[in-house]
Design a protein that fits this description.
Low-confidence stretches: 18-62
Strand content: 15-25%
Number of strands: 8
Distance between the termini: 134 Å
Mean pLDDT: 74
Largest sheet: 6 strands, antiparallel
Length: 250
């Protein structure tokens, strides 16, 4: 066993050398984690994603209305029964506004033109209206004859505003979506005959409020097809602009 002390000394020397070597290496090496935000790999600088707080690169705005248009076309091709009203409450329908990607200013310009269209048609209507009593004297009958060529400039003015604000591409799409429903606005732009019948005497509601019953009928000048609606309201709460000027006295 003479070789045993020699073996122990050899192993001890090896371990001491290994420890010294590791300490020397660790003293000269860079730390594993640093505060640097970049590191170089070959000739390429790679940004440390965890340290990158820069804003994302801006992208060009996309034409969102084109996406809406393609969606509408796809639904139409599938025959989903998609219905879009061009005008709701004297304003371009919000569905079309979103579909076309209109700005607030563009929407307001179109809405002003729509309101002006209705106002001008009403003025022409009221100028030709005729009021008579029913045979039994219980109703007032107001007849508004169909308008003819005098409404053409009004219609052309609205179309001009739509085509100018929307531009050729969006205006063509608008026509496809709206179909002939635009021409049917305001009783076919005044082409229909309108007849109002309103009771001359009120009736009382359960709470004692006096209300007047009235009926509105609209007849197409071509084909004679018509529609009607009836309602009851207090005199001051009848909001039909064509009827207000012919209300019986309180």
């Amino acid at each position: 066993m003479r070789w045993f002390p020699t073996l122990c000394l050899t192993l001890l020397a090896f371990c001491l050398g290994l420890i010294v070597g590791l300490r020397t290496k660790s003293g000269n090496s860079a730390p594993i984690f640093t505060n640097a935000s970049t590191a170089t790999v070959g000739s390429t600088t790679v940004r440390n994603k965890l340290a990158d707080t820069s804003a994302p690169t801006a992208t060009e705005p996309q034409d969102s209305w084109g996406v809406q248009a393609r969606t509408f076309a796809e639904l139409s091709n599938r025959k989903e029964g998609l219905i879009v009203r061009p005008v709701a409450g004297d304003k371009l329908d919000i569905g079309l506004v979103l579909m076309l990607g209109l700005t607030t200013d563009e929407w307001n310009r179109i809405n002003r033109s729509i309101l002006e269209t209705r106002t001008q048609i009403e003025h022409l209507r009221l100028a030709t209206a005729v009021s008579t009593l029913s045979k039994d004297g219980k109703k007032t009958i107001i007849t508004l004859p169909p308008l003819a060529n005098e409404v053409d400039p009004i219609y052309k003015s609205l179309i001009s505003t739509l085509s100018t604000v929307l531009g050729p591409e969006k205006y063509n799409f608008f026509n496809k979506v709206a179909g002939d429903s635009l021409d049917q606005m305001y009783d076919n732009f005044g082409a229909n005959e309108i007849i109002y019948e309103i009771a001359n005497e009120p009736t009382a509601n359960a709470d004692g409020t006096k209300v007047y019953a009235y009926r509105r009928s609209s007849f197409a000048s071509v084909g004679g097809a018509g529609s009607w609606s009836s309602s009851k309201a207090e005199l001051g709460k009848i909001d039909d602009p064509l009827l207000r000027g012919f209300l019986p006295p309180k």
